[in-house]
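Crash report, auto-generated. Payload:
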Amino acid sequence: MEKFFLFLLRLSPKIKRTLWRWWYQNLVKSYPQFNWQFMNYGFCDLNSELGNLNLSQEDEPNRYFIQLYYYLARATDLEDKIVLEVGSGRGGGAAYIADYLNPQKIIGIDFSQENIKLARQTYEQTNLSFQLGDAEALPFNSDSFDVVLNLESSHCYGSMTKFVQEVYRVLKPGGIFSWADFRSVEELESLKQIFKQSKFELIQNTNITPQVVKALLLVNQRKQHFIDRYVPGFLKTAFEEFAAVEDSEMYQSFRTGKNVYLNYVFRK
Ligand SMILES: C[S@@+](CC[C@H](N)C(=O)[O-])C[C@H]1O[C@@H](n2cnc3c(N)ncnc32)[C@H](O)[C@@H]1O
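Recovered output after restart:
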């Protein structure tokens, strides 16, 4: 089934977008658990880069997913800033930022209505809101945000070029764009060209694959347990790939270097 899925993904940007939307919509319908708040692969601090990230008891189980958000967000000080997260998923990351990093406000957008509904039901901080929106046509005026964050979402987009142009448009002059996601090595050259041809100034780019692989290992048991317990047999392999559990092709592709996980930070 997942081979057919991969085949369709390669067919056209429109089909790719439609299939991803269908996937995320159905994920919420099938698994509406409020305690599943993150959908990224996580980050394990290998060289004490993050310092001692203090988390509440309640947030501790999500430490590795939160650490990836913290890694992305620490590109700049978010205190009193107006922040946009594109592809906010089930809302855990934007809620973490609203609680711990004191932005004036953070808006999470996602193209899955179900994700937005779930995030709104789960969180209610005053400096946090969620709205439906497409990364390739951001529903905001130009020069609206100090910071745009984008975590493990852009591999679903039909056009990365359009997305990068949209981020540039909605950022205020001097605003920061912090991006992280995975790509296959074959896709790297075209990604670099898209970033190079944008009007952004590159501040830093880092390969964080080792930190992500370590986090994947550390959360492996928990994910596998969830899949064994809740996912029907015919969907198990697709879920194992999606979650990149140990021994999945996805996990192995990070280990062998076929896929890399990157963070880029830009200034407008
Ligand atoms: C792997 S999840 C990551 C979610 C969240 N960033 C996290 O780390 O938990 C990818 C998210 O991107 C969203 N997404 C994919 N394509 C999108 C698009 N074109 N516009 C907005 N959101 C999109 C999906 O609905 C999904 O919630």
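Post-recovery validation: The two ends are 42 Å apart (CA to CA).
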